[in-house]
Amino acid sequence: MLKKKVEDICNRQIEREGYSSNLYLAMASWAETNGFSGVAAWLYAQADEERVHFLKFIKYVNERGGKAVIPALKKPANEFKGVEELFKEVLKHEEFITSSINEIVALSLEEKDFNTHNFLQWFVTEQVEEEASVRTILDKVHLVGKNNMYLFDRDILSLRTPAAGKTATA
Ligand SMILES: [Fe+2]
Ligand SMILES: [Fe+2]
Q: Crossing angle, helix 83-110 and helix 4-33, to 10 degrees?
């Protein structure tokens, strides 16, 4: 049985993973309507992955005798200044999610909830990959500069790691 404190913080994470999915959908929609079809495809796939994370937390809470609460999600921004600014926001958001996961890890140890601690290890590893892949994208964006966005847009899907692809269908 999950302790109330752990259940509550997992429900907070359910909201954050659900919001992540919506945030990336909003970004995908912006990219799609601004001619960046590659960037849009990358973001749609990312939104799918976040939904997988959302479901993993929902199922975990319920499996442990808690009650997952399906939240209303706040509305993400729908306008972005450009591709570089967009990916800077993605990185900032992923860093926020990493610290959010780390807080749950810390609480699970404090509460001696080793099952939750074990469940979280997948997310700890995932966040390292998520941040690294967005940093790689930002490096490329800087490299190509604003005038070569067409080539970057064609190339971005090749930057999705096979592991990230796998989690999308897990
Ligand atoms: Fe996530
Ligand atoms: Fe993520």
A: 170
C-alpha of residue 123 to centroid of ligand 2, in Å: 9
The pTM assigned to this predicted structure is 0.91
User: Which ligand is closest to the CA of 134, given by its number?
Assistant: 2
Ligand with minimal distance to 93 CA: 2
Helix or strand holding residue 124 (H, E) = helix 114-144
Distance from the alpha carbon of residue 166 to the mean position of ligand 1, in angstroms: 14
CA distance 133 to 163: 11
- Alpha-carbon distance of 67 to 60, in angstroms, equals 10
162-169 and 114-144 helices cross at what angle (nearest 10)? 130
Is 19 in contact with 72 (CB distance < 8 Å)?
Answer: no
The tens digit of pLDDT for each residue in 117-167 reads 999 999 999 999 999 999 999 999 998 887 778 888 988 988 886 554 444
55 CA distance to ligand 2 middle (Å): 13
Q: Tell me how far the alpha carbon of residue 131 lies from the centroid of ligand 1, in angstroms.
A: 11
Q: What is the DSSP letter of 73?
A: -
